[in-house]
Design goal:
Shape: globular
Distance between the termini: 39 Å
Strand content: over 45%
Mean pLDDT: 96
Low-confidence stretches: none
Number of strands: 11
Number of helices: 0
Radius of gyration: 14 Å
Length: about 120
């Protein structure tokens, strides 16, 4: 069973930065897309950003220009650099990995890490 473990969350002031990390328990070469999602209290989980195995990235409109996703295949890691943080970025951030299993996409999720943006 694939395990994804997020780290790097915490409390930060508006305008500050955080870097989230996601460590996979096995090689991430098999995942054709990895990404970050977030869920604020009382809201649905939403896409933050994804990155394909080829390095193509996609960002949610609310984080474009502020957040950057990257992946290190050699270390089985995915990162999320978050700059210019706003209070509305407060949420639990989840790492996601997707691969085909018997031709069907299968998603794996981490346990989440809390990010709180507040003065």
């Amino acid at each position: 069973q694939v395990q994804l473990v997020e780290s790097g969350g915490g409390l930060v002031q508006p305008g500050g930065s955080l870097r989230l990390s996601c460590a996979a328990s096995e090689s991430i070469f098999s995942f054709y897309v990895m990404g970050w999602y977030r869920q604020a209290l009382g809201k649905q989980r939403e896409l933050v950003t994804t990155i394909t195995s080829g390095g193509t990235t996609n960002y949610g409109d609310s984080v474009k220009g502020r957040f950057t996703i990257s992946r290190d295949n050699a270390k089985n890691m995915v990162y999320l650099q978050m700059n210019s943080l706003k209070p509305e970025d407060t949420a639990v951030y989840y790492c996601n990995a997707r691969r085909l299993q018997f031709g069907v996409p299968r998603d794996y999720w981490g346990q989440g890490t809390q990010v709180t943006v507040s003065s």
